[in-house]
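Regression test case RT-17, inverse folding.

Input:
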């Protein structure tokens, strides 16, 4: 919970923004499911006013979905955040994005123009919006790529971030295994590469299994360098997480990759999570099950 001067408590405030078609409304509804008060299409300049209303209504959490309908979007958002910071309030900014191909597919499915395409193509609008939001993306607390997420998965991710989760202190940590052949996760804060380890894919008895299965896990962890890598990586994480916490970063995404995202990265991601026991940790395996 954010604090103002003295003992006065104010609501937590989340700003949901990002690319049109990336799932902003779904993210907002997921917070409504958690009991948050959510306002859609709010001009950034009205964020301080929304906070005043939330104070009077004694709301515990408020969220605003803001988009590019204001052409002064970036400047307005920075100004609003500065006004909130002057009151001792630090809003958490969630930036949703997706690949160009996925965004084009979504706009074609709903048969709606992109809000910035004008007389051009949907892809032109996407490119213009990416350029406009580049600075906002870089300043966001959470960057979430929804390209491979369905509605239910996006809601689950938002619940992980904002649904509570016990008394563990420090940033919330999301650990994601992935396969390099399917591309780097664009929402990762730190990336670890496990391709230096022998690939169980080339062991016929192990190929059908995944890093969640004991035979693969034991094989991966028994390889030269595996334990040393985990020890060194956890030492780096302790320094990084302490720094993130000091800087007020509340959400950290760690990505652990191998070639296909089935064996080595899954096993190592689970091990990293186990060694971070006691913190707010969730684990997903982005490419497990893909061919």
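Golden output:
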């Amino acid at each position: 919970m954010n604090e103002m001067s003295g003992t006065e408590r104010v609501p937590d405030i989340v700003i949901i923004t990002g690319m049109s078609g990336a799932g902003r409304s779904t993210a907002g509804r997921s917070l409504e499911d958690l009991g948050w008060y959510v306002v859609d299409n709010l001009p950034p300049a009205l964020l301080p006013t929304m906070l005043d209303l939330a104070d009077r209504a004694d709301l515990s959490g408020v969220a605003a979905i803001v988009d590019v309908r204001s052409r002064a979007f970036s400047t307005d958002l920075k100004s609003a955040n500065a006004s909130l910071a002057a009151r001792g309030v630090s809003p958490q900014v969630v930036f949703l994005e997706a690949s160009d191909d996925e965004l084009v597919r979504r706009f074609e499915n709903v048969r709606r123009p992109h809000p910035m395409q004008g007389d051009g193509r949907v892809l032109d609008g996407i490119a213009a919006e990416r350029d406009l939001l580049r600075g906002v993306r870089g300043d966001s607390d959470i960057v979430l790529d929804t390209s491979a997420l369905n509605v239910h998965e996006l809601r689950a991710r938002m619940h992980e971030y904002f649904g509570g989760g016990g008394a563990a202190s420090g940033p919330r940590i999301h650990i994601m295994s992935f396969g390099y052949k399917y591309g780097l996760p664009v929402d990762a804060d730190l990336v670890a590469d496990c391709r230096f380890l022998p690939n169980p894919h080339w062991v016929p008895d192990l190929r059908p299994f995944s890093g969640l299965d004991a035979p693969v896990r034991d094989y991966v962890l028994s390889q030269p360098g595996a334990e040393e890598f985990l020890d060194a990586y956890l030492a780096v994480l302790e320094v990084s997480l302490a720094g993130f916490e000091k800087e007020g970063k509340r959400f950290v995404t760690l990505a652990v990759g191998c070639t296909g995202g089935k064996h080595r990265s899954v096993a190592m991601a689970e091990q990293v999570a186990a060694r971070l026991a006691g913190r707010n940790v969730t684990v997903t395996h982005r490419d497990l099950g893909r061919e």
